[in-house]
Amino acid sequence: MAPVEGFSKLTKEEKIEWISNKYTHNSKETKATIKRYWNTDKELQKLHDEFIENTITNFYVPLGIAPNFLINDKLYVIPMAIEESSVVAAASKAAKFWLHRGGFKTKVLGTEKIGQVHFMYKGDDQKLEYFFNAIKPKLIEETIPITKNMTKRGGGITNILLRNKSKDLKDYYQLHCTFETLDAMGANFINSCLEQLALTLKREALEYSGFNEEEKNIEIVMSILSNYVPNCLVRAEVSCPINELKEGNEISSIEFAEKMVRAVNIAKVEPFRAVTHNKGIMNGIDAVVLATGNDFRAVEAGIHAYASKDGQYTSLTHASIENDVFKFWLEIPLALGTVGGLTSLHPLAKMALDILDRPSAKELMQLVAVAGLAQNFAAVRSLVTTGIQQGHMKMHLMNILNQMQATESEKNTLVDHFRKHTVTHSAVVDAIQTLRKV
Ligand code: MEV
């Protein structure tokens, strides 16, 4: 197949014709599927079409809500956008469990964002240091047109450091900049500041009389925010006396508490387990981040880097038993916004923020951290008691029934049947076949 030229200039209909005819096995069916997912509200569809380039349709993910989250003594309902069947159920279960045991307590430990101008400099380190200190006021001054509104509200550039990285990579230096971006995630603000800083740096070096010709010629490689924000940190915690932990008849409270601590300790020392353990945390985090119109890829990248900050990938949650009290907590970096970007463009993101009582970015950090902690508590609790499949397969039953194109009446009968039987893929297939033979 030949490459296509000027694709983005084709109309939406032309793009659909092209993809259906050239890259699918049944073009009529493809076109019908694409159009089935268009919104009948033309204005809303146009809004979604314009989020990205080459939009042909919408890809739905369910938006669910998990009620009964008691966070710092206030009740919340948490909206979650996620396709995995058991996640909202698990969050709700954990919320209910802690509702009667004091709820979740949270704290923001820092809100510092980071961005860097990466550049190459061939010359004397000390001269560069001297030059940097001399031009630092100018660097700040020339960003004022970009920062003045943010500064008025209490944010802005908090510091600029010159970092010598030439031991790691020959001639490599950076301006390492820190920011306070208040309720904005701040990516555009930070990147605009960095690009201005780079321009000033380059120009000032060319004009600096203390440099020789080679030193004057600083090469700007790139200017970009960092999604690693170890000082934009939030903590969420639950705790209760061990004797209050018991629920159900599976195991005693102390046995349960000890198993939870052991499971977390395994994730601390064993990266293979830590990755899956943290994936469970991200089930909760990503779902709220996505529902509130935030950038879940940025959050994922930053959190996983934080999980390896001490040299080995490890658990993001911690658990302890001290003085007969069970404590379970999470500490993660989170760069989130509640203004700007998709948060104010996507009607469902706006609605999700409304459900959360229009939080500030700091409040949203706490709510998201709670969703991660709750998810991890629910997963590890199942793992050390009943096993994960019982709950997972119960939630997955509807997916299998839909795959088998079960009718409403078949679904009712089989959901009832599997209340008393173990759900496996083959057991569901057998049951539906038997039902259809009757
Ligand atoms: C599945 O999406 C998440 C779990 O694997 C997490 C865990 O193992 O802790 C259940």
From TrEMBL:
NCBIfam families: HMG_CoA_R_NAD (TIGR00532). GO terms for molecular function: hydroxymethylglutaryl-CoA reductase (NADH) activity. Belongs to the HMG-CoA reductase family. The keyword NAD applies. The keyword Acetylation does not apply. It comes from the Bacteria. It catalyses: (R)-mevalonate + 2 NAD(+) + CoA = (3S)-3-hydroxy-3-methylglutaryl-CoA + 2 NADH + 2 H(+). Pathway: Metabolic intermediate metabolism; (R)-mevalonate degradation; (S)-3-hydroxy-3-methylglutaryl-CoA from (R)-mevalonate: step 1/1. Its EC number is 1.1.1.88. CDD domains: HMG-CoA_reductase_classII (cd00644). This is 3-hydroxy-3-methylglutaryl coenzyme A reductase. Pfam families: HMG-CoA_red. PANTHER family: 3-HYDROXY-3-METHYLGLUTARYL-COENZYME A REDUCTASE. Transmembrane segments: none annotated. Keywords: NAD, Oxidoreductase.
